[in-house]
Write a structure and sequence with these properties.
By secondary structure, this protein is mainly α. Helices cover 78% and strands 0% of the residues.
């Protein structure tokens, strides 16, 4: 029997390498899907690190403080803000949170009674699955709403993980960035460094604008509910504040518990509450957001909604919450590494503002202050 030729051996080797690459990719994908929650928590920590780094560098530019001292001031200030807020409104939130589920379920029962009093609505309910009994479905939806609230306030382990990751990234951003850049071939490292700078810059600007919008929405909603005399106004305002972190879908979700609580006060109160939420969202969409977006990141609504639906289907509520900053990251990478580098077209990179980026040195290399290092990507 003749020995296999060199060409045959080369072909077999290529087949083995191709199979090994495919298996490695499948194993990597399985690992990512299995550890997706951990990766999302790491990304949330990255967002916190980007925010802390940006605040510290803003303080460095405006004061004689060095970066380490500025970061310490930022951390002390944020911790003091959260602790002070907890002492001021924490007891009220804790007391009202215990009443929220009962109030929402009572409001849902009142809503069903109101709908059942109308003939065409009653017949519509009777045609729904389960002979018109929507209690099971409502319980599931309401369980998700109250579960989200309890997750925000109760999952301390995740909060600590995000906090520690964010602080460590902010303390030594260049350490982690440089090690990540070394994973790429030498000719691509400088371009990847520029891409990480752009991503950090775009995410930082989006966070600034989003937190400002959240604060305004929360204050307006709480004030309006207190004026209307709606029960649990402070808790509902906090829900509106937190849910506003997720554009489009978040404000809609925050309206549901408010409407159900308002049903305990009667249908007329529901109309007032709906009017309040629609008015707040009108102010946020047409006055606050356009004003903020003059200096921050503006994203196409269709892309945001699709990203939220996709992340929600793949990873759940945490994915929905982080869908927008993930979309910012993906858009910047596509613009720089594909549109500019592969296609060769000029494009205005998302959040691009040369005044806020590190200066460019010889050969186009970005220069960052020695004490700061590159911002976390």
């Amino acid at each position: 029997m003749a020995a296999p030729s060199a060409q045959d051996r080369s072909y077999v080797q290529r087949v083995i390498i191709a199979v090994a690459v495919v298996l490695a990719m499948l194993m990597g994908l399985a690992l990512v899907l299995y550890a997706v929650d951990v990766l999302l928590l790491a990304f949330a920590g990255l967002l916190l690190g980007v925010l802390l780094d940006g605040l510290a560098m803003a303080l460095v530019r405006r004061t004689p403080l060095r970066r380490g001292a500025a970061l310490g001031v930022v951390l002390i200030g944020l911790v003091s803000l959260f602790v002070g807020s907890g002492f001021l409104i924490g007891p009220q939130i804790a007391a009202q949170a215990g009443e929220m589920r009962d109030a929402v379920m009572a409001g849902y029962a009142s809503l069903r009674e109101t709908l059942a009093s109308v003939s065409w609505t009653r017949s519509l309910l009777s045609e729904m699955p389960g002979g018109g009994d929507l209690g099971g479905l409502a319980s599931g939806v309401l369980g998700r709403i109250t579960g989200t609230l309890s997750t925000v306030f109760g999952t301390l382990a995740n909060v600590f993980i995000v906090g520690f990751v964010g602080i460590y990234l902010a303390v030594h951003p260049h350490l982690y960035l440089d090690n990540a850049i070394r994973l790429f071939p030498r000719p691509r490292r400088q371009r990847m460094r520029e891409a990480t700078h752009r991503i950090g810059h775009a995410i930082r600007r989006w966070l600034y604008g989003q937190f400002l919008a959240m604060l305004i929405v929360g204050v307006l909603t709480t004030t309006g509910l207190l004026i209307l005399g709606v029960p649990l106004a402070l808790t509902l305002g906090v829900i509106a504040f937190l849910f506003s972190f997720v554009p489009f879908l978040g404000p809609i979700a925050s309206t549901i518990p408010a409407v159900l609580v308002a049903f305990m006060e009667g249908p007329s109160m529901v109309l007032w509450v709906l009017g309040l939420y629609v008015g707040v969202q009108f102010i946020e969409s047409n006055l606050i957001t356009p004003l903020v977006q003059k200096r921050v990141v503006s994203l196409p609504p269709a892309i945001l909604i699709l990203a939220q639906i996709l992340m929600g289907a793949l990873t759940g509520l945490l994915g929905v919450a982080l869908a927008t900053p993930l979309a910012v990251t993906a858009i910047v990478l596509v613009q720089m590494l594909y549109v500019e580098d592969v296609i060769g077209d000029d494009v205005e990179v998302l959040g691009e503002d040369t005044d806020d980026l590190p200066p460019t040195g010889p050969g186009g290399r970005m220069v960052t202050p020695t004490a700061a290092g590159p911002p976390p990507g």
